[in-house]
Structures are given as C-alpha cells and as structure tokens.
Write a structure and sequence with these properties.
Strand order of the largest sheet: 4-11-10-7-8
Largest sheet: 5 strands, mixed
Radius of gyration: 15 Å
CATH architecture of one domain: Sandwich
Helix content: 10-25%
CATH topology of one domain: Immunoglobulin-like
Order of helices and strands: HHEEEEEEEEEEE
Distance between the termini: 35 Å
Shape: globular
Number of helices: 2
CATH class of one domain: Mainly Beta
C-alpha cells in the first residue's frame, strides 16, 4: 500500500501530464474548431459548452468565465448538460472564475452523480496563442 504522500504526488503528476497533453493539443493546433464555435464572449465574459473529449475552457488571464452559462458533456455517450451543474475550485463552490494569470486551472463540474474535471486554460491578453 502506498503512502499518502506518494498517492498525492502521483495524483499531481497525473494532473500535470493531463494538462501538458491538453496544452500540447492547443499549441499544435489539434484543438477541435467546434470548441471555438461553442465559446462565446459577451461583455468580456466567456460562456461555453465543454465537450467530453475536450474538457477545456480557453480565455485570457483576467477574463471572467461565467460558469452558470457553461454546459458540460459528462460522458462520451451523453448529451451536454446545461443546467443544475455545480462548479468547484480548490474545494469551494463557484459560479464564475477569473484566472489571475496565464496558466491551467482545474475546476470540477458536478451534476447529480456525474463529475468531470474541466480545465480553464488562460493566456496573456496580448498573446495570440496558448503557450504555457
């Protein structure tokens, strides 16, 4: 049986690896254009639909993401859930999220018994690409 420290380190490593794959996809242009089409910016805020295969919300650092208007596809075989989603960041329930700096932030979306980690990927406002 692994120690708690080892388990925590492994979880962090897995999260980092997943974030690297996600960012690599963004950087290499392998991101589905459907995601961009599903993201809408209104009054400097971002709202979107998060697909199961692309669990990311892209925005600029300092830009507010209105999580109440974001839908989530919790499994590959389900549709997008648009209501009744509870969002958490660092163990606290949130209805919006504003990344303070360029980076990748892991949020959790929950609806009923469904849970999905969704990454907010933020770039600097003066940058054209998501390079971390």
């Amino acid at each position: 049986m692994r120690s708690r420290k080892t388990q925590t380190a492994m979880k962090r490593l897995m999260l980092l690896m997943l974030a690297m794959v996600l960012v690599s996809s963004l950087v290499l242009g392998a991101v589905s254009m459907e995601f961009t089409a599903n993201a809408a910016q209104t009054s400097g805020q971002v709202s979107c639909n998060v697909k199961f295969s692309m669990p990311a919300i892209c925005c600029d650092a300092g830009q507010k993401v209105d999580l109440t208007s974001c839908g989530v596809q919790f499994s590959a075989s389900s549709g997008i859930t648009t209501g009744g989603i509870t969002w958490t960041y660092n163990g606290k329930t949130v209805t919006s999220f504003t990344p303070d700096a360029k980076g990748v932030y892991a949020l959790t979306a929950t609806s009923g018994s469904n849970t999905k980690t969704v990454y907010v990927v933020a770039k600097n406002p003066d940058e054209n690409e998501y390079l971390l």
